[in-house]
Amino acid sequence: LSATITTHHDFRVAPVDRKLFGAFVEHLGRCVYTGIYEPEHPESDDRGFRKDVIDAVRDLGISTVRYPGGNFVSGYRWEDGVGPLERRPVRLDLAWHTTETNEFGTNEFMEWASRASIEPMMAVNLGTRGIMEAVDLLEYCNGGTHTALADLRRSHGAEKPYGITMWCLGNEMDGPWQTGHKTAQEYGRLAAETARAMRAVDPTLQLVACGSSNSGMPTFGRWEYEVLQETYEDVDFISAHSYYQEHDGDLGSFLASAVDLDGFVESVAATIEAVRAQKRSQKRVYISLDEWNVWYQSRQDEQVPQGDDWPVAPKLLEDNYSVADAVVVGSLLISILRHSDVIKSASLAQLVNVIAPIMTEPGGKMWKQTTYHPFQHVSQMARGEVLQTLISSPTYETNRYGDVDVLDAVSVANDSEEVVFAVNRSQHEQMELTVRSGHKVRSVQATTYASADPYWKAGPSDDASVLPVVNATARIEGKCVKVTLPPVSWNVIRMP
Ligand code: AHR
């Protein structure tokens, strides 16, 4: 197999926004408790935060973290999670049928955010609560004068206002599973009024309205249109969520998941443009892809507890990822970069233990999933401007998406280098890739992540048998760069 990509530094898509490399921490399973927070762990810091997890979050290059949900937020009373620990109520979490101790709340999250050097993206509850509670939380977090709520925060030990800029107006409000699920009309009005009230406190906030929970929702498209009708001038983003998994052993379709993401993102962008045109607005609303990942939702052991069983921080959604999953995560990142003109914020869902790149053993070690590697490569090396990347590739037939390019790739350039991120979707054949870059290439280094067994998975006792390695086939030939990409592989080609 052979394929070519052609780029030119004058043909650009958009600058790479650091917000594309966000993640998500929800009060779900062991994401918070025994994930980022475990006071009993011998190596936790003075606030009970796992230092190994903080180090990994930094190493992964995470920019923003969405918190506290997710479905959880739609039943959350933020007041439960602030103030003296002994007075915090224990509550039922209706979203995941668990018990929430409220030991970890807003101030713990903000302290963790500061220690992990991430920007918070706070979600307000618009499922079971409303405008006033959202404004109260905003005032509690960001209030700089002496109001009751700002002083309450000070009395809880946080003297300085947090200055949180990014706020999500609820979560997946079109989903019948959501506590306080709404119609587009109901949600659109509530989101618009909440946005206006929050902006009355601080006009510089960046607000995210809920889009559809996924592109398979029966109201997908109409939901975005109706919600934006109400909110267009008052929000900066509309959310999009998308998860993928291999169905019935169909690896070919699974490896092509980015084709679906491309189509989804382009549909949402088209709907935004339709509303903008109809409103004759100058303003641009962007996409916040604030939940995306591989997630094996159909697995039986993914079931949430039932009946009288309301456990505290049980194991939930602890998917263990293969190399093939990591290759798909890499191609989803390529799709995100390719659409960096319309996606300006994205969050890998989630960060620790729950469908996550970082895993922890309670009281024990932290280990890295296969999906850690492509994410880290992109967050560290996608700097500068995304280039229009012309792909000429053989195709293969998939059950889900028809004929699909075997190669998926995108190129990013800055003053010191051009970096190509590339996936070979072939299951059996290596690919000879030729890169024809418009810029003068002085040298080339390539890194490849692949395994003879694409279903190899990392685990607590071994997360290092399969690691990204130098791809020694990378070379300059005339004006081109050539690299051989193994089957089912994730690749990074750096050209200073
Ligand atoms: O990320 C897991 C769940 O997926 C989130 O709580 C919800 O928003 C989505 O359906």
Automatic annotation (TrEMBL):
The keyword Hydrolase is annotated on this UniProt entry: yes
Residue span, Alpha-L-arabinofuranosidase C-terminal domain: 290-489
Entries under InterPro entries matching the protein: Alpha-L-AF_C, ASD1_cat, GH, Glyco_hydro_b
Name by which UniProt lists this protein: non-reducing end alpha-L-arabinofuranosidase
Taxon lineage: Bacteria, Bacillati, Actinomycetota, Actinomycetes, Actinomycetales
Catalytic activity as recorded in UniProt: Hydrolysis of terminal non-reducing alpha-L-arabinofuranoside residues in alpha-L-arabinosides
SMART domains: Alpha-L-AF_C
Keywords noted in UniProt: Carbohydrate metabolism, Glycosidase, Hydrolase
Enzyme Commission no: 3.2.1.55
Enzyme class: hydrolase
Molecular functions per Gene Ontology: alpha-L-arabinofuranosidase activity
